[in-house]
Amino acid sequence: MNTKLTRRNWLKSSAFLAAGLGVAPALMASESILQPVYKPQIWERNFSFPSDLQGLRARLLANENPYGPSDEVRLAIMESVSKGNRYGHQDSMRLKEMLAEREGVTPDHIMLGPGSTDILEKTAISHFVSGGNIVSADPSYMSLVKTAMAFGGSWKNIPLTADYAHDLSAMRAAIDKKTRLIYVCNPNNPMGSLTPNADLRKFCAEASEKAPVFVDEAYLEFLEEREGKSMVDLVAQGKNVIVARTFSKIHGMAGLRIGYGVAQPETLEKIRSMVRSNMGLCVTSIRGAMASLEATAFHEKTRKLTAESRAYVGEQLQSMGFSYVPSYTSFMIFPIDMPGDDFLDKMFAQRIGVRVFEINDKPWCRVSMGTMDEMKIFIEGLKKTLG
Ligand code: PLP
What we know:
The chain is α/β, with parallel strands linked by helices and about 375 residues long. It is about 45% helix and about 15% strand. It has 15 helices and 12 strands. Pyridoxal-5'-phosphate binds near residues 189 and 246.
């Protein structure tokens, strides 16, 4: 690769981009409200992919599925290209029906979007235009929380327990009259950890009496034991719970941009009264998603290969003396003994893309599970960098 891909170049370009978009003032204003334990770095907040990302030998920075999209999805997309002159309303309806049947609800409980990011952001916009607070774990996935803050919400950040689960009793205690939403990411990003199912179910059922509970299940399909782990049946029971799912992870369709939310029809109406839902969707992606629902052998293969990569990285990290958080997802995280900037510069110089999160003032490396070849490149690069 001829362009020098360093993390500092990224920082400059993404800060510039954010300033141009007017993003920074909103984030800075909301920061004054917060005293978070978890402090993502600036570049992380304004993260954007540079065009020379293709030059990476190991692309392990966005929890993408290296094996997708499946053959079924490729075929469905090719076959639907000729439908590109028409809006996808009918196809959206059909996909909603298929998803509703799977989730045990009616189609008016489903909202589609170009990725679950769309569901996260639109939920945040519609719930925080008149302020209030959001209760969520810290560290956790920040997309919804950041949008909530940019729209005037304040963040009640609740540290995880010692074993990296959501501290549900502390979260329960944090809910007050101004709480507009509770966000739970399970399994959690960036920690890869899981919150015990029965406790979470009880929490969601109880807390949703006070405020809507948003459960982000982006990585749920990576669990070996998935049966009964989703909170979606609480929606079917009429609880004020919103579950977000994505086609970006186990389905291997991140670049095709499709995801969905399952919630009470009134909640979805509230969102749709402010922003439209289906208009960001392409017919090709909708058709691809329909085909992907049937591509179970591909999902199984992804789960198996991801588990193999996790086991390999775990063994290697252990032999190098790192302590890592046991992961239930397609990524792993561990603390490093080097300033985050230096670490990333050294890894990117070897054309290995990973992320660093500052947690309690200490840098942690988050590495996505790529192919076994990529994981070997990562371990070799890590040894050179920190060894
Ligand atoms: N939620 C979590 C926890 C994620 O990690 C991600 C992406 O990495 C998303 C949501 C958003 O994914 P997408 O917009 O591709 O569906």
